[in-house]
Design goal:
The chain is mostly helical. The protein contains 20 helices and two strands. The N and C termini lie far apart (about 60 Å).
Length: about 350
């Protein structure tokens, strides 16, 4: 019995450090040049997070260091040597076997798509600089820049611009699709960056979904104004953007009261079908807003349902979203990530 108690105490006192602190400790154990080489491959958010953790790691104990090393070893036991430097090795083999002329087009088609170095550099710029850039450069170039940014950053970048410029940039961004490398080169010149370019390559950028995410990060009054302005230019485009602004998975962001109000307006058979196709967490939340009796009825119906087509599930889920949008339009509920800020 005493042994059991001791084992329990040892488990409680065992060091428990998170992945971020472990990574920071390991990085600080490396030579400066090696650590710098690793940091060069991280994005701005990762560098910032790791930098903060490194300050914490500077006071790490010997036990913390041992725990970090153990975590590293355990997490990498199943790492295949094939994964290390794979893109570089594959690129080299193809060019050696086929030559630059034949290997180039094939590599462009099969390699995982990455944004241009110039576009990646945007992630390191401050909001004021980006805002000035999109305000002063050619609108089409500015739209490409906007589409290359995270939605939250893009929303902040256009927040200080006049409404007409905001509407024009969102419209241009929403109608982007394939962007030529020549257009990317314009941005490279603006940012004084000279990254590698692949002839005839195209980058998938912009589109309704990206603009919907940007609009979702704007205040509700501004979002409504901009959508109204875009609708004057292209009603179908504005409707498509609005469709993307709130999808079935976003029901998880509603508070219990709002979600319950929405589901009360949905027929039971349609609700069961929609929940059957939802992920476990959202399904549980939806059932949790119902009365115990209603939840059990829906659960039983799902169990007896058997296989259903994806098209039927999507139709049921769209019906619920339609109800939610209708209730939002009438002011009964608030949709979107900024709902808590509305008055």
């Amino acid at each position: 019995m005493d042994d059991d108690i001791l084992e329990g105490e040892n488990e409680i006192s065992a060091p428990r450090i998170g992945g971020g602190l472990s990574a920071a400790i390991l990085l600080m154990l490396l030579e400066d040049n090696d650590a710098s080489a690793i940091l060069q491959h991280l994005d701005p958010a990762e560098v910032k997070s790791l930098g903060k953790a490194m300050f914490e790691a500077s006071s790490a104990t010997e036990t913390d260091v041992e725990a970090a090393l153990e975590k590293f070893v355990n997490n990498n036991r199943t790492l295949s040597s094939l994964a290390v430097g794979a893109p570089t090795r594959i690129h080299g083999m193809m060019h050696q076997a086929l030559g630059d002329v034949r290997a180039g087009p094939i590599w462009t088609e099969i390699a995982p798509k990455k944004s241009s170095i110039a576009l990646e550099a945007l992630n390191w710029m401050d909001i004021a600089t980006i805002s000035k850039l999109v305000a002063t450069e050619h609108p089409q170039v500015a739209a490409i820049v906007l589409s290359a940014l995270p939605p939250e950053t893009a929303a902040q970048a256009i927040a200080g611009l006049d409404e007409a410029t905001q509407s024009d940039l969102l419209f241009r961004s929403a109608t982007l699709n394939q962007v030529s490398t020549e257009a990317i080169e314009d941005i490279e010149a603006i940012l004084a960056k000279h990254g590698p370019s692949t002839q005839n390559a195209m980058l998938k950028m912009g589109g309704q979904n990206d603009v919907a995410k940007i609009v979702n990060n704007l205040s509700r009054p501004l979002a409504e104004k901009l959508l109204k302005s875009i609708r004057k230019k292209d009603r179908q485009l504005a409707d498509a953007i609005e469709e993307e602004m709130f999808v079935f998975e976003d029901l998880a962001n509603l508070d219990t009261k709002s979600l319950s109000a929405v589901l009360r307006n949905v027929e039971a058979d349609r609700l069961a079908l929609a929940i059957k196709g939802a992920d476990a967490a959202l399904a549980q939340k939806m059932l949790g807003t119902l009365s115990a009796r209603a939840a059990q009825t829906i659960t039983d119906e799902i169990a007896e349902m058997g296989p259903v087509s994806r098209a039927d599930v999507e139709e049921a889920q769209k019906a619920i979203i339609a109800v939610a949008r209708s209730m939002a339009a009438s002011g009964e509920i608030m949709l979107g990530p900024q709902g808590a800020d509305y008055v």
